[in-house]
């Protein structure tokens, strides 16, 4: 089964919490703080792998969560780092942010890696908060939460040559004749319902990958038939072999078919019209009037297409010359990279701990991610911890904002479930 789209959820590991501990040893009085740091959470990393050709694995598993960092412990021992989670995807996978549909990364080469969700930083133990005036801190930092997001994976096959043409013109027969690919072949339309890849070897030349792109018909760029599902796989090809049925046994006009398919390429992406094309006039073994091919070739020459071959994929007539021409043309064209406009890329916002202040029934309510994190790191029953918390509020600018909003001595400030009187 071929699957070229998938939506998955990824979450990196949370950082481990710092530890509150004090040295307790015989003959050592008033041992100082020795709480260790929490370990960093594991990251989720996407890796491009040539061994995969489909996103089928993501049909059955859609949630990927990395390991959480271990909490710190006493004796200044840091917690173990969470193990990174490697998620393997086929080469040619484009990763998009599911909410905005903007492109995060294009994994176009074997071994390409991208950290899609970075592990949370481990919290610091109380050993880091000792000062000459605060020698026994009873607080530590919690671990930072890991990142989580939904992403959309879209596979755009990496092939050197793309076969295109109307259904039942012989594309599957051609790819089976020149490679070990064995697609379904039958005498009816839409026999091929998914792209097929084959490796073509021509004597004295490097092998190349050919892709049979199915379902492209008139109106494909607007969603007619299956074409819109597979047009994306042409984007990375270096050249196109355009297969037409020159025999006319189905009552079709080869030249009109050629024009219609090129119109769909233009409508889908105008850059595809500049892709070099070799025209393969197939089923020539059933052609009884040679003038039909000669007239077809002459019309294409007028349109600027000079690489026109008369072939029969079924009998392999002219197929070898066609493949040699493809090899020669490939040698002059560099590997095609996906052209992506800068506006299509996803811009990651810098992660900040923020807060907002609202007055509710004469109570100054401070809320936000900053408040959640700050409250996790204090012990409200310990004076030194509260003094540190006051310092954090001051450094962050919360106290200044409260003054600007007109707070007076005795007014109540609420941070989640914690309240205090402003003095």
Automatic annotation (TrEMBL):
Annotated ranges, domain Obg: 1-158
Requisite cofactors: Mg(2+)
Binding site for GTP: 165-172, 190-194, 212-215, 282-285, 312-314
Subcellular location, record wording: Cytoplasm
GO CC field: cytoplasm
Domain OBG-type G, first and last residues per copy: 159-331
Any one GO molecular function term: GTP binding
Predominant location: cytoplasm
Positions bound to Mg(2+): 172, 192
Gene Ontology biological process terms, A to Z: ribosome biogenesis
EC number annotated for this UniProt entry: 3.6.5.-
Keywords: Cytoplasm, GTP-binding, Hydrolase, Magnesium, Metal-binding, Nucleotide-binding
Pfam families: DUF1967, GTP1_OBG, MMR_HSR1
Domain OCT: 345-423
Record function comment: An essential GTPase which binds GTP, GDP and possibly (p)ppGpp with moderate affinity, with high nucleotide exchange rates and a fairly low GTP hydrolysis rate. Plays a role in control of the cell cycle, stress response, ribosome biogenesis and in those bacteria that undergo differentiation, in morphogenesis control.
Complex and partners: Monomer.
Family: Belongs to the TRAFAC class OBG-HflX-like GTPase superfamily. OBG GTPase family.
Name of this protein: GTPase Obg
Organism (species): Clostridium grantii DSM 8605
Organism ancestry: Bacteria, Bacillati, Bacillota, Clostridia, Eubacteriales
Gene name, Swiss-Prot/TrEMBL: obg
């Amino acid at each position: 089964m071929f699957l070229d789209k998938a939506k998955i959820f990824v979450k990196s590991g949370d950082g481990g919490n710092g530890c509150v501990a004090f040295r307790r040893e015989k003959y050592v009085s008033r041992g100082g703080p020795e709480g260790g740091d929490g370990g960093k959470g594991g990251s989720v990393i996407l890796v491009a792998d040539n061994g995969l050709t489909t996103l089928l694995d993501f049909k059955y598993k859609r949630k990927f969560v990395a390991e959480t960092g271990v909490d710190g412990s006493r004796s200044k021992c840091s917690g173990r780092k969470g193990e990174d989670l490697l998620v393997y995807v086929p080469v040619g996978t484009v990763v998009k942010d599911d909410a905005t549909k903007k492109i995060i990364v294009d994994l176009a080469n074997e071994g390409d890696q991208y950290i899609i969700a970075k592990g949370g930083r481990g919290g610091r133990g109380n050993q880091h908060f000792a000062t000459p005036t605060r020698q026994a801190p009873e607080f530590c930092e919690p671990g930072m939460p890991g990142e989580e997001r939904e992403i959309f994976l879209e596979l755009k096959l990496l092939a050197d040559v793309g076969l295109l043409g109307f259904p039942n013109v012989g594309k599957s027969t051609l790819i089976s004749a020149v490679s070990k690919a064995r697609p379904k072949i039958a005498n009816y339309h839409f026999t091929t319902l998914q792209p097929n890849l084959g490796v073509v070897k021509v004597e004295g030349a490097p092998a190349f990958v050919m892709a049979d792109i199915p379902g492209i018909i008139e109106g494909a760029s607007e969603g007619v038939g299956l074409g819109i599902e597979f047009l994306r796989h042409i984007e990375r090809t270096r050249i196109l072999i355009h297969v037409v049925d020159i025999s006319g046994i189905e009552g079709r006009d080869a030249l009109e078919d050629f024009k219609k398919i090129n119109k769909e390429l233009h409508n889908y992406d105008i850059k595809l019209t500049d892709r070099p094309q070799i025209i393969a006039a197939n089923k020539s073994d059933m052609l009884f009037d040679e003038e039909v091919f000669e007239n077809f070739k002459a019309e294409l020459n007028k349109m600027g297409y000079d690489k026109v071959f008369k072939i029969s994929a079924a009998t392999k007539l002219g197929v070898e010359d066609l493949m040699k021409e493809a090899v020669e043309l490939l040698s002059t064209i560099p590997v095609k990279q996906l052209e992506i406009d800068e506006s299509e890329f996803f811009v990651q916002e810098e992660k900040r701990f923020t807060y907002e202040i609202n007055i509710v029934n004469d109570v100054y309510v401070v809320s936000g991610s900053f408040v959640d994190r700050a409250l996790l790191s204090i012990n409200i029953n310990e004076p030194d911890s509260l003094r540190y918390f006051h310092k954090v509020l001051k450094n962050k600018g919360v106290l200044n904002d409260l003054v600007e909003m007109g707070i007076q001595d005795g007014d109540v400030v609420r941070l989640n479930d914690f309240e205090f009187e402003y003095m």
